[in-house]
Amino acid sequence: MLRSFFQLTAAVSLVTAVDEVGIPSGMATCTTGPGAACGTHLLQHGGGVKRMQAPSHDDDVEAITQPSSVQVKRRIGATVAPTAATTVVSIKLPAPIVAAPEAEALFSPGPSSDKLLYVGILSSPGNRHRRDVLRESWLQALKAHYPDKKVVAEFLIGRRPIQGQLAHHPQGTKATETEVQLEMNLTEESELGDIARVPMVDDYDTLSEKVLNLLSRGLERGYSFMMKIDDDQDLNISSIDDAFGSRSPADAVYAGNYLWERQGYQIQLGADGRFVKYFSGSCYVLSWELARQVAEQDMSHSVAYNMYGSKSEDVNMGRWVKWADEHRSTQGWKPVEYVSLNLSRALPNIIQHENYKQS
């Protein structure tokens, strides 16, 4: 009987109850009538999307829960009750619904109470001098201050694009001796244990992708907050506990040194010609909840910044946060909190060294 119901063409109405933590409970009803296909229906709730699909058996309905980008299949009971004008399927949604064991590894873990801040330092492959300055200054102090790894920091480094000698025919181009040597140097330097290699071409054009990699690494490790900082910055270690120790990682928090609330330069506009407020790129922080939205839930939007953003990763971050905030508003969730903090300052010895090299 259920199979014949799903063969009807129908107009679809779908309703559900959702508890406080986004786990579906109660009843979901699919009301059908003449005029439209009853194929895949969407059920929005705080934890993701429920997709109710036509079953292949008479006695059950297949539900697919999609928190973030992971699909988890569950079989649930269903009954059919026809009426004069419509056919109604009442579907009991058991609570709680737990991810299938084979899919659990694909979820980013929730924030851990003993992991406060993940610090990702964006560094270019050739910036060895800058990294050494940081190792001798605040990186060493950070490890001493947090021996329990409540706060950790590492350099994120990709690879230089292969320029080679065959620019007119890029297929099969091999790295030059200089490019090979740079990789060998990085491999040796990685033995220091503070470098994370990310699988991407590392240049200014790809900084936005690098930041998304940074957020993903922080989420995978279960940190409550994720910081992006440049390799010419001196981290204000004493501010960390006061700034984030009492904040909830479940709140959407966006913090940084300086908030651009109004346009100051033409380069701050996106591809759509609009300005959106953002924190300057020297150093900023996202809470676990906001990072999860930007780098997991909204990833398809985040990587499509050619439509609305620019090459500037901090400008794009402002766009990603605004997109997440608008989604939160439609769901009735707490808005993003913008917090200005004294997180870092430029390292004068790096500036002096590079000015000397250029003179």
Protein model, in words:
By secondary structure, the protein is α+β, with helices and mostly antiparallel strands. It has 2 domains: 2-103, no CATH class; 117-358, Spore Coat Polysaccharide Biosynthesis Protein SpsA, Chain A. The chain is 28% helix and 28% strand. It has a 7-stranded mixed β-sheet, with helices on both faces. Strands 1-2-8-7 form a 4-stranded antiparallel β-sheet, with no helix packed on it. A 4-stranded antiparallel β-sheet has the order 3-4-5-6, with no helix packed on it. Strand 1 (13-18) and strand 2 (24-32) form a beta hairpin. Mean pLDDT is 77; it is low at 1-105.
Tag the structure with descriptive keywords.
4-stranded antiparallel beta sheet, disordered N terminus, about 350 residues, Spore Coat Polysaccharide Biosynthesis Protein SpsA, Chain A, globular, alpha+beta, 11 helices, 7-stranded mixed beta sheet
Give the helix/strand layout.
Elements: H1 2-6, E1 13-18, E2 24-32, E3 41-45, E4 48-53, E5 61-66, E6 72-76, E7 78-82, E8 87-92, H2 101-104, E9 117-122, H3 128-136, H4 138-145, E10 151-159, H5 177-189, E11 195-201, H6 207-220, E12 225-230, E13 233-235, H7 240-244, E14 253-256, E15 259-260, E16 278-279, E17 283-287, H8 288-297, H9 299-302, H10 313-331, E18 337-340, E19 344-346, H11 348-358
Helix pairs in contact: 6-8, 6-10
